[in-house]
Request: fold
Amino acid sequence: MLNGIWLSFFLAAFAAALWQWLGNNDPEVFSRLVTALFDMAELSVEIVLVLAGTMTLWLGFLAIAEKAGLVDVLARLLDPLFRRLMPEVPSGHPAMGHITMNFAANVLGLDNAATPIGIKAMHSLQELNPSKNTASNAQILFLVLNTSSLTLLPVTIFMYRAQQGAAEPTAVFLPILLATSASSLVGLLTVSLVQRLKLWHPVVLAYLVAGAAALGLLLATLAGMSAQALEATSTLVGNLTLFGIVVGFLAIAALRRVNVYDAFIEGAREGLQVALSLLPYLVAMLVAVGVLRASGVLEAGLEGFRWLAEALGWDTRFVDALPTAFIKPLSGSGARAMMIETMDTFGVDSFPALMAATMQGSTETTFYVLAVYFGAVGIRRIRHGLACALLADLAGIVTAIGVCYWFFG
Reply:
């Protein structure tokens, strides 16, 4: 699928450039296309250099949390919930630990670090799967919750905003939290409806009510604030939470006599490798998006949506952020490229760039996750997995649009 999408970007750009040249007498369009190729390749390298430091930093802290037993604590906290949502997985099975570690990486916004852990979890669940070619209920629930990507600390998005020169890189913290909470809730509800899970079980209700109460308290606290106050609050809470978690990891690990420095170095070794592995994908997608915009294709498509929004009487400022939403279910690197390109075009603190960053953090890359996770264990029949995941994606994108108008409108 990605092969066709990537190729179509270049073919569409070339066709549009021919039209600009022959139809509009604009021979300079090919110069703009070539310039876009080299500019986007250079930008990719700059981004990866910054990303290498970020990934190294957070994989190191995640290793400290794991050696301190914090992941095991989280697993025990979530075990009563997952025993009800995944009744076919025995209590204490290794799959629970892998699932918990995957969620921990997603919560910290380490989407690339979460992938290998997620594949381990899928292998563990496959051991319990009676039909090896067909996705089990537990595998589908895990995949949908993974694609909805509940993210507490979207550190990679903070990094991209910082790299682009944002005044407050964490300003999108609360909007992303609200959007990703909506996508995760819709994902859980749709899977539960199809699989007839007993969400009214007292234990499950206790978790859901606690989560809803926390989210409701957050919304009640934010209600009535001005856009300036909301942005300032999001920045403060984001920074405080980010550094508070770091200090918490270190303090608990030190109390448990973990050599925090050695643990950090051990985990951080993977950071550079993970970041460098992203470079080819980032270059590929950024140059494709760059030529698409330079040729005028992207702008022409957005004008169609802008016309429709105007006809319906809507505020059209969200249209410039839509490329990220369209590509997100298909390609993580493509959506990342769209987000960065939007920042580069409109300014990192512009309304479209803030909305694109929120959309980027609201969901995961559904088709990529589905292909990698199910492909890793040989699943061919995915049943209701895709439909539930796409509904969760839609909920996240729609919520992202709404909260951005609330926070930054």
